[in-house]
Amino acid sequence: MTGSASAAPAHEDLNPFHIAQQQFEHAIRYLPEFQKGLVDYLVRPERVLITEFPIETSNGTVRNFTGYRVLHNRARGPGKGGIRYHPDVTADEVRALATWMTWKCAVMDIPFGGAKGGVICNPKELTKDDLRKITRRFIAELGDAIGPHTDVPAPDVNTSAETMAWVFDTYDMMHSGRNNLPVVTGKPVEMGGSFGRNEATSRGCLFCTQHALSRGLVPGLDSVDGATVVVQGFGNAGSIAAQLYAEQGSKIIAGSDSRGAIFSADGFDPDEAVAHKKETGSVVGLPGTEEISNEALLALECDILIPAALENQIRADNADDVKARLVAEAANGPTTPAADRILAEKGIPVLPDILANAGGVTVSYYEWVQNIENEQWDEEEVNAKLLRKMTRATDSVLDTRERINGTLSEIAATRKELGRGNDALASIDLRTAAYILAVKRVADVTLRRGIWP
Ligand code: NAD
Description:
By secondary structure, the protein is of the alpha/beta class. The chain has helices spanning 16-28, 36-42, 91-108, 128-142, 161-174, 197-214, 236-247, 270-280, 294-298, 337-346, 353-356, 359-372, 379-405, 408-417, 430-449, and strands spanning 47-56, 62-73, 79-86, 114-120, 151-155, 228-232, 251-257, 260-263, 290-292, 304-307, 326-328, 350-351.
């Protein structure tokens, strides 16, 4: 969360786009063959749209809103990425999220590029009618900047299947007489949404964790069955992750939302936490649990910590307190580069966002395919395809890490030969491995297509 910078030391740059660029630049050190011009191109978004628009709110006043849609890269297919409604949205946050989408789609090997959207607004202070008007006006302003084969939105923080229904309807009104269903994913199942999409981000995170554990990523922890799990953020990604991990035998010992965190050493039933949040607005107060702080939640002893809220939660100032044996990033950008280094030194592996939360965009891709083909697959089929994709992508990232770490001296020699630097290369973590895999895939396609004109 860009707005949660208050607890961070002054020296840590928490601008999410700077972080995305640092991650990219670190990975590029291991890909010395790529020319500087190509690298400069890939680190920046292709397009940033900023729109100002008014709506008349339910209380009769006129209010202006600022919306962003960023297209980072389209080399491998149409832009793809969610729309976020949050008071802390900034252009750089949307740039970062769009960039991460490019690498995520490439890690998963799905034919999409990266994009993201956001509107600066606080849904807690707006009515449903206001949010519908904001959505319609934002999509109308974007006009042909989005489209089934150019840039395809989806849900993100504070947007839902219902929001996606409004996105579709607005676009359809403006482009009548053709099949517009593939213009947006994450729609309600009754109107072209895919079975399994709502749970896909969390299910993908579970599949990725299960497979990485089965390959021995965490010594002595070979399954989520019996594992203790802490979930930060009980929204779409986090609450469903808690439910799916619990179904597989994990014990959910802590959870949180923007109002606070809860803990029970004996574990709690995530279904009850979801019901309590629905009734009261927060997981806090769930009978049988005690309230703890967000910082205490991140520092709990557990097997698996799942950050599923916003960016910059595990930082230079609190990473050393993390006692989990594995971090599985359901959120985008929850761990800063400085925190990555601290966790690596502590021997805590991180399943990075561009792999661990890619189940959402993968099933969005399945939804897009179903819409284009006018089909509807059943949930078992969707989940079976997701399992295969997540397993393959997790293997690719783990294998890339092994391959790079086994050839560091050769890569350093190539760097020297090509005049890219004469420094020693440290062994890489899984985030860098995922970046290397993704950047190479995007760069290869860019070069095969040829630099236009
Ligand atoms: P959401 O709006 O459904 O839920 C966000 C949750 O985080 C809410 O419960 C909110 O109360 C909580 N939260 C906010 N600030 C917090 C804090 N400081 N501490 C603890 N909890 C806090 O959003 P979502 O769709 O679940 O997205 C969550 C994360 O997952 C985001 O980073 C998003 O980009 C990422 N993600 C979502 C999807 C998807 O398909 N929805 C896909 C990939 C990645």
